[in-house]
């Protein structure tokens, strides 16, 4: 079994009478992006501060590569700390230093690099973060989003092995939010660091996360992948996701899972099943797309598919939900199988001709990815049976899935 | 029965009052001792870090802020202190027919006492308060935590240069203050009131000894350590205040730093003087 990079065992932290972490156990593995989610004020930042040593546990132990942190000698402890970088929730930039000086500070103070090398390194980070226009400005002269990017540049300046991000996308517009998340995923791949994120940007953050931890009342209520998270019907997770998602899926504008379930139940009527209803399961391979294009581009494609499904099938009374990270389920009440297949074919054609070229040019402009790539949209159609619950429908539709639309390197064809 | 109850109640109240009094006194004493201990460790650690690498630039920067930028206020206060001394002492000495020793009295008062004390108070007001406020803001906005996460020792980066700069600046500014004060005394004593110019300088030369200058120098060093440590300590531990939070805690820390520094300057002045006598 793989030894966790960082492990908490029975960690308890109290502030006066309030217990923030209550015998918390968690594991963070090397070269993974671990996202910690949880309601505000549940101790997510406290948890991160324990990792870097800003806070120490009242009870329990923290282990680094299986070695208890509190037993480390000074040199060993310093070595551990030098591998970690922290991006604060409120950025914690030095108000009296310019953007350049802020990013250069850790390099100037902790390395013996020459002035020229430091300048080169800082300027490369500045360019990556699109901060070239504000190099000489002070943090108070920047917008909240720009300050965040400066903080991110500073956190990455020393090429750390572990980066702790405390809400890195808060206060960013949707495009920048995706750019930051993509950048974290991209750098993780490029430099091979381990990232621990705290984020409320659900579901966007799930696209880059390898593991998700749900902190609930001082304990880790869930740890696992996104698929495992959405597959569970634990009341805590339901409550949490519902409170985050609300009535609509933020990414696509489709119905939330809860709303979809209610509407589906309603469409079935009081036990009498609409035998003419059909279900369609759409999907794109986000992991393959993200590999080729970056997270932002794959999110854009997914978003376009969701929006298009919503608009197109909404006109004929259909309703859709994003049931997995990269799959959508659409229910078409009062529609037979033949008609649905025709509708789906038209939908695919329109998506291929009108939507995908737009998405491609948009993502190329935003991400700079000009490489040739191919997009497959797959779909499976099935009829709703009288006793079909959603899980059964999904299984049936999945069995019928085939390639529906293809966008091969700018050429169209089905 | 009623009388017994009243008496019991009285004794309970008395007990609880004396208990509370002792409790409060004990708590305050413990607090003071704790703070003194922490401040001593704080100073010792910061002082040792002065000699670590990458400090020169920061120390020069702080000498500019604490020393060079305080020179104008020191000149102003020194000049008027010397002028007032010249005036007051002239009229006092005239009563004894010894106005000829004006120069030596002005010089000795300034070098032994007023120079180090007033310079330290002036620097406390100008730079000490700024130190506390700046460090306090760094603390409450998590910038000190950010330094820690970047593996930059906050004591080395923030506190040591300020202590070093104070140790360099206080004696220099005191010497400056003394010189300007003596010139101020010359302005009123010699130019305004007609004391002989030669006698003014001759008496200074004959009465002021190296021990007087050394005493003033030692005092200014002691004040430098006390003021810089107090001001930095108050700012650095702003977040641990229990009477306020955020910006309010910074303002209270700044006030405490200035008041405590001034009190400590005067108390330590007496102690050092009595030791040097």
Range of strand content of chain A: 15-25%
- Count of distinct structural domains of chain A: 2
Radius of gyration of chain A: 24 Å
What gyration radius of chain B follows from the Cα positions, in whole Å? Answer: 24 Å
Q: Name the chain pair whose interface involves the most residues.
A: A-B, 23 and 14 residues
Shape category of chain B: globular
| First and last CA, distance of chain B | 67 Å
CATH class of the largest domain in chain A: Alpha Beta
* E-strand count of chain B: 0
| Largest sheet features of chain A | 6 strands, mixed
Oligomer: heterodimer
Q: Average pLDDT across residues of chain A?
A: 80
The count of helical stretches of chain B stands at 9
The name of the CATH architecture of the largest domain in chain A is 3-Layer(aba) Sandwich
Residue runs with pLDDT of under 50 for 5 or more positions of chain A: 270-274
What does this structure look like?
The complex is a heterodimer of chains A (414) and B (277). Chain A is an alpha/beta fold. Chain A has two domains: 6-244, P-loop containing nucleotide triphosphate hydrolases (Rossmann fold), CATH 3.40.50.300; 247-408, 2-Layer Sandwich (Alpha-Beta Plaits). Chain A is 42% helix and 23% strand. Chain A has helices at residues 44-52, 74-82, 99-110, 115-128, 144-156, 174-191, 226-231, 235-245, 257-268, 286-293, 295-314, 337-367, 390-399; strands spanning 6-15, 18-28, 33-37, 59-64, 67-68, 84-87, 162-166, 194-198, 211-216, 219-224, 278-283, 319-324, 327-332, 374-383, 402-408. In chain A, helix 3 (99-110) runs parallel beside helix 5 (144-156), helix 4 crosses helix 5 (144-156) and helix 10 (286-293) packs across helix 11 (295-314). Chain A is globular, with a radius of gyration of 24 Å. The model of chain A is unreliable at 270-274 (pLDDT under 50). The mean pLDDT of chain B is 91. Chain B has nine helices and no strands. The radius of gyration of chain B is 24 Å and the shape is globular. Chain B has 277 residues and is mainly alpha-helical. The termini of chain B are far apart. Chain A binds chain B through residues 49, 52-54, 78, 81-82, 84-86, 88, 90, 92-95, 105-106, 108-110, 154, 158, and chain B through 54, 137-138, 141-143, 145-146, 148-152, 157.
């Amino acid at each position: 079994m793989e030894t966790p990079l960082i492990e908490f065992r029975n960690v308890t932290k109290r502030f006066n009478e309030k217990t923030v972490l209550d015998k918390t156990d968690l594991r963070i593995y090397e070269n993974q992006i671990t996202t910690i989610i949880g309601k505000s004020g549940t101790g997510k930042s406290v948890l991160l501060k324990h990792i870097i040593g800003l806070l120490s546990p009242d009870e329990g132990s923290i282990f680094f590569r299986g070695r208890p942190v509190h037993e480390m000698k000074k040199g060993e402890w310093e070595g551990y700390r030098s591998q970690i970088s922290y991006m604060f929730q409120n950025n914690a930039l030095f108000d009296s230093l310019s953007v350049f000086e802020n990013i250069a500070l850790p390099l100037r103070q902790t390395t013996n690099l020459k002035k020229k090398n430091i300048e080169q390194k800082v300027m490369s980070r500045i360019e990556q973060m699109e901060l070239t226009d504000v190099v000489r400005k002070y943090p108070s002269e920047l917008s909240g989003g720009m300050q965040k990017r400066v903080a991110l540049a500073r956190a990455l300046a020393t090429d750390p092995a572990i980066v702790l991000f405390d809400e890195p996308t808060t206060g960013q517009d949707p495009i920048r939010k995706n750019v930051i998340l993509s950048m974290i995923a991209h750098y993780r791949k490029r430099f091979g660091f381990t990232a621990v994120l705290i984020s409320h940007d659900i579901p966007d953050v799930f696209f880059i996360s390898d593991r998700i931890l749900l902190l609930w009342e001082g304990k880790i209520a869930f740890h696992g992948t996104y698929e495992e998270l959405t597959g569970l019907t634990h009341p805590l997770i339901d409550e949490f996701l519902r409170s985050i998602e609300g009535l609509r899926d933020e990414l696509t504008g489709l119905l939330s899972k809860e709303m979809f379930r209610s509407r589906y139940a309603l469409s079935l009527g009081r036990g009498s099943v609409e035998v003419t209803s059909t279900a369609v399961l759409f999907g794109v391979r986000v992991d393959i797309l993200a590999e080729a294009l970056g997270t932002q581009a794959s999110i854009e494609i997914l978003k376009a598919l969701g929006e298009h499904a919503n608009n197109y099938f909404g006109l004929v009374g259909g309703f859709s939900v994003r049931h997995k990270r990269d799959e959508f389920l659409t229910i078409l009440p009062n529609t037979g199988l033949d008609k649905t297949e025709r509708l789906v074919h038209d939908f695919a054609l329109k998506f291929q001709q009108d939507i995908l070229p737009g998405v491609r040019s948009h993502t190329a402009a935003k991400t700079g990815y000009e490489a040739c790539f191919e997009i497959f949209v797959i779909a499976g159609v099935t009829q709703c049976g009288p006793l079909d619950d959603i899980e059964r429908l999904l299984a049936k539709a999945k069995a019928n899935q085939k390639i529906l639309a293809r966008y091969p390197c700018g050429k169209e064809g089905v | 029965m009623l009388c017994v109850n009243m008496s019991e109640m009285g004794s309970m109240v008395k007990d609880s009052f004396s208990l509370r009094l002792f409790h409060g006194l004990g708590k305050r004493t413990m607090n003071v001792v704790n703070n003194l201990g922490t401040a001593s460790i704080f100073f010792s650690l910061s002082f040792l870090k002065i000699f670590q690498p990458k400090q020169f630039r920061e120390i020069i920067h702080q000498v500019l802020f604490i020393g060079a930028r305080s020179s104008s206020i020191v000149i102003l206060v020194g000049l008027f202190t010397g002028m007032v001394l010249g005036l007051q002492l002239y009229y006092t000495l005239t009563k004894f027919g010894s106005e000829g020793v004006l120069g030596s009295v002005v010089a000795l008062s300034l070098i032994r006492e007023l120079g180090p004390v007033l310079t330290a108070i002036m620097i406390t007001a100008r730079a000490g308060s700024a130190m506390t406020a700046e460090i306090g803001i760094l603390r409450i906005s998590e910038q000190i935590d950010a330094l820690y996460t970047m593996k930059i020792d906050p004591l080395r980066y923030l506190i040591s240069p300020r202590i070093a700069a104070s140790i360099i600046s206080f004696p220099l500014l005191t010497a400056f203050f003394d010189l300007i004060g003596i010139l101020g005394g010359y302005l009123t004593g010699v130019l305004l009131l007609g004391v002989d110019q030669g006698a003014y300088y001759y008496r200074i030369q004959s009465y002021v000894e190296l021990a007087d200058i050394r005493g003033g120098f030692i005092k200014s060093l002691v004040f430098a350590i006390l003021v810089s440590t107090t001001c930095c300590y108050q700012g650095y531990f702003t977040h641990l205040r229990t009477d306020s939070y955020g910006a309010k805690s910074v303002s209270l820390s700044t006030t405490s730093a200035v008041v405590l520094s001034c009190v400590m300057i005067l108390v330590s002045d007496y102690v050092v003087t009595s030791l040097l006598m």
